[in-house]
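This is your field. Please look over both lines of this record.
***
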Amino acid sequence: MYSIRASFVLLFAFLAACAAKDFSSDDPRLARLASDREAVWWAWFTNDTTKLHQLLADQVVAINMGDSTWQDRASVLSSAREFVKSGGKLLRVSFPRNERQVFGDCAVLYSTYEIELEQNGQRIVQRGRATEMFIWKNGVWQNSGWHLDSGS
């Protein structure tokens, strides 16, 4: 119960911090949202530290599926490094269902995801749900946090 309540508090604090200004559907920033989000996933699974430093907010909070700890930026970077070091490879990522809310320079994406990985010579498909928060900063959408679950 505490973790659900804490997640809502973090989400509402994030939304309250966002400027409540109009965001036109033809704003060029909107076109970047999906590509910057996908770039974060690829950067993590390939340990592209240059991209990760560009696309992760300094105060990122990550709640991953099946993990009882919450990760800060240093932990996210470390886990990306460890995934690649273990020989893991991302083969494919897709987001079959997406909903978005945009509040000025802040956006929340709700989606289902599917990733295909290769680990120890075996292909693994993982599916789940994601809630991701983004902040428009330095000309990109920086991922400021996410919560992944199995969807079941």
Notes: The chain has a mean pLDDT of 88.
